[in-house]
Amino acid sequence: MMGMAKYASEFPVENLVYAQGVNSTIAKGRITSIDTSEAKKQKGVLEVITHENALKLKAFDKKMPSSTLTTIAPVLQSTEVLHYGQFVACVVAETFEQAQHACRLVKVTYEEDKPEIHLDKHRRKAYKPDEAADFSRGNMDAGMRDADVKVEETYTTPIEHQHPMELHAAIVSWKNDKVKMYANQQILREATIAVADTFMIPRENVQIIAPYIGGGFGSKLRVNKHIILGAMASKMLGRPVKITVTRQQMFTNTGMRQFDEQVMKIGAKKDGALTALAHHTTSHCAMDVQYYEACGNVSKMLYNTPNNAISHRLIPLNLPCPDSMRAPGEATGSFALECAMDEMAWKLKMDPIDFRIKNDTQTDLGAGKPFSSRLLTECLRIGADKFGWENRPKEPGAKKEGNWLIGYGVSAASRNAPYKKTSSKVILELRNSILYATIRMDATDLGTGSYTIVAQTASEYLGIPVAQVTVELGDSTFPVTPGSGGSWGAASYCNAAKVACENAIISLKNKKNIPEGQQIEVAELLKQNRLTRFEAEGTAEPSEEFKKHSVFSFGANFAEVWVDQDTGVYRIKRMVNVGSAGKIVNPKTAYGQIIGGLTMGAGMVIAEQSKIEPNFGNFITRSLADYHVPVNLDMANVEVIFLPEEDKIANDMGIKGIGELGITSVAASIANAIFNATGKRMRDLPITPEKLVEAKKEQA
Ligand code: MOS
Q: Model-level pTM?
């Protein structure tokens, strides 16, 4: 707020040197030689690390490892190149500019193979990544035979990159086998494990500090290889090392959303009752590590269908390993599902809202558990009212303004609302008879407002103004939290802060034999105990009730789109988002989360895609000048509504996640609006004007 937040690369550390990674210029093959002599001659250059002199790191087991929060990140361990842009060397110099310059002088010679970069050419290699990749209930074939109306379509979404404004960076100090780093990791405890395991040192020897993170969107979940390069350089040189990943490198070295091809099959009776729903996804992956976003999960739980089948397959290619990007699975999966649902409603001649409500369910049929709360129908109805759904053109082309065709679209949103074991410490202090509190935990704030909501929670449960609460986050030596990811942060952090405050109060009361129910100010409690300082810890975790339920946030998206009937240029005129996400701790930060999600959802449709050069496998979108994201004018008219809700099964405070709900199904609402305007079904994102002009209208 005051420009005082300090980010990973901004910490003043003495005696600092700068490391910079060198990227491969082939996608597949072997390094035959590396000539570092020219680079080493340059002023200020201290070292060039290659596979020849790199420290030995832990290697992957034979079995293909999965990319998780604790997966090791070995780098510079062999001559093998598996994707374009892979780190093949690391230059360390006295200044950033010297390191950058010398990187260009490292001469790498390769024996080059033809890279495998086209999904279509390697379908034979598709494999099932794990047991959870497939799911089925009932009998899908029988369900389709039973259907009066069928939709069978394929939807494709491109590779996207997360691109938080803050570049990936780390300042690492390796001293006596203790590693301390400032690094923008979303989840600190797991990141310390990944670093320690990679270097085969004790886990308690690694400390990560990240008080502020300038966005992550999933790209800062796992430990990426630049972190390991920085740590290796620091150990080898005996000096603190700063390493930054350039915007260009963020296309090849810090994760991405994978390419997904989703085949949807839906069967329904004439009255709109679903008889069958299948969702089969094929995605690309890396050669050495596997990762898949579970696009089909949304089709397991969102609608009431007796027959259901889900699968996920991966095709390994010579591309960097994909990773989580905001609502991994749901953002893309709900595009396919909610477009296919719209197609079915159109075929049934049913209103798409009525069709969804007809198939609503209070039970998660995939998990076989009741939802803790599900206000999807309410989100759809209230949204329809706010949006003016009754003015929707009944068929494409029916509503026009000059050359603009006007369409309305709707989609249903759902996102798992996880809640995880979380610890926190509270320190109470009396100064001049005024109570001050400090809350400490290893949580992170990605710009999402973690500090704010934790301070609010302590204020509420200690009965003091927010101004008397200090929140300290972002240090892996603080009490352990699940960190920021997967939309579990708010619920987990707040409940842990609450328990710590309650524990402090109970302990202070117990010491004086004050009954737990008795109202007494916390400052007074300290006085009665003759204390000016008191500390307590607390741990919150999911209840038995939580485990017996399926806990999700729900929402509905509405979009009005104007399409120029000649050029295919289109504008999102307005959007309405209604969410039911439990207790909204802070409307301002929650609003920011949803707006951000809506913007990324709109980005999926109007612009975002990372393109690969078809012969050599390099990304040809390499900056924010060619990787386009929405701008303010695209999002000029957005309304966000939260339904009042406190889900006490979700957790004591009734909070559910919203960080990922906001992006979910937004793309479908826009694509459905485009159909409503033009009669064209656009099943391949992004929807560019060229594609729209060329597309044929659906047969009525
Ligand atoms: Mo999220 S994609 O778990 O940061």
A: 0.97
